[in-house]
Amino acid sequence: MERSFGVKQHSLVVYFFLAYAITWILSIVVTAQGTPQPIVGLSALILHYGPALAALIVTAWIAGRKGVGALLNRLRIWRVGIGWYLLVLFFPVVIRLIAVGIDVLLGGTAPTFFSAAGVPSS
Questions:
Q1: How many CB atoms lie within 10 A of CB 83?
Q2: CA dihedral 41, 16, 65, 45 (to 10 degrees)
Q3: Burial (CB count <10 Å: 0-12, 13-18, 19+), residue 26
């Protein structure tokens, strides 16, 4: 008798619970005062992948290594042209740069993320 603790029957609920839990807990770690910078940096990176990590965890729990392999193999299937992948990859960056440009044109201060002034000294 397999002991899955109800994960198989309620996999969608478990997935959403894990996705939110991973993302929210790491968001709290990132915003908490006094958290060491390496932990903040790593948590800030990982929290964006909460749903993907939840999918891998639930799939591994239900279907094991073969299931995770099948899930990851689906990433190699290209159903649209390369232009759509490039759009998805670069659109957020372009929109952010346009917003910064409009802000500067309207009298806002230029951001420091393109200059050495924004880099900490030590």
A1: 8
A2: -10
A3: buried
CA dihedral 20, 22, 25, 31 (to 10 degrees): -100
**Which residues have CB under 8 Å from 40's CB, separation 6+?**
29, 30
Closest C-alpha among 84, 85, 103 to residue 95: 103
* Helix 11-31, helix 37-46: angle, nearest 10: 150
Predicted confidence (pLDDT) per residue in 37-88, tens digit: 889 889 988 988 999 999 999 999 999 999 999 999 988 888 889 899 899 8
Q: By CB neighbour count within 10 A (0-12 exposed, 13-18 middle, 19+ buried), where does 121 fall?
A: exposed
Residue identified by tokens 């649209």 is: 80
